[in-house]
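If you are new to this repository, start here. Below is one unmodified record pulled from the training split, so you can see the exact layout before writing a loader.
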Amino acid sequence: MKYVLFFLCLCNPILRAEIVPTIDQINYEWLLQEGAETGYTDHIVVFKKIFQKMKVKNFLEFGMGYSTKYFLDSCTKVISVEFISSGYGPLWYQRCIDLFRECPNWIPIVYFTGYANDTSWARYKYLGSESVHKAWAYQCATHKNYALIDDFYLTELNAFITNLAKTRPIDIAFIDSGLLLRGDLVQLCFNKSPIIIAHNIAPNRTALGNDAYGYSRVITPENYEEIFIPMGSGLTAWIKKEPAYTAVADELRSYASGF
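And here is the target side for that same chain:
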C-alpha cells in the first residue's frame, strides 16, 4: 500500500495541497514556474523547443494535466488518455475536464481497466479488460515485468494505440501517465509515432534497481535515435531517423549537451 500511495501522490497533483489555477492562468511561464517548484511540468521547456521546429497536427498524451493547456495552444488536435481503475479514480480527470472542457481541439479519452463503477460520465471512453489493471498493480508493487506472467495487457494496449494512430496519424506521443507501465507504452508507440517523449525517467537512470515505470524494458529500434535530457525529473526523446525530424533531433541533442 505504501507504494500505491507514494506513486499516486507523485503522478497525481490533485493529491498534493495546492491552489487550483484557472485556465487563463495556465500559460508557458506559469508551467515553467510550476515545473521549477514541483517537477510536475518541468518538461515544458523541451516541448517549446520542439514546437518551434515543427508544426504538430496530432498530439497524443498518456496522462492529462496542466501542461495539456500548452499542448492545446500549440497543436491542431490533442488526444489525452487517462487510465482509471479501481485503485486510481476519476478525480484528476474531472479536474482537467472542468478546466479544458471548452477547448474545441481536445479529445479526452478515459481508458477503464478493472473499474466496476459507473462510466457514463465519460464522453470518450474505452472499456478495457482487467489485464492492464493487474499489470499496473504488479508494476507498482514490485517494479517488475508482468508480461513474464501474462502478456495479454500488451496485446490490449497495442490494439488501442494502433486504432488511435489509424484514426489520426500521431506526430508526437508523450508518456507521462499515472499508469506506471510507461516503458511498455513507449515500446508500443514505436513506428506509430515518429517522436516519443517520456517523463520522469531520471530515477531509472540514477538509482540502481529502481525501475518504477518500467523504462528499463524499452528497446530502441534501429530507425529511432534516443536522446536523454538529464534535466529535473529526467526526459528521454526517441526520434525517428528521417529528414522531416532532423531539426528536432539536432535541437534536443544540442540542449541535452548543455547539462
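Two things worth knowing about this chain: The chain has one domain: 2-256. The domain at 2-256 is CATH 3.40.50.150 (Rossmann fold).
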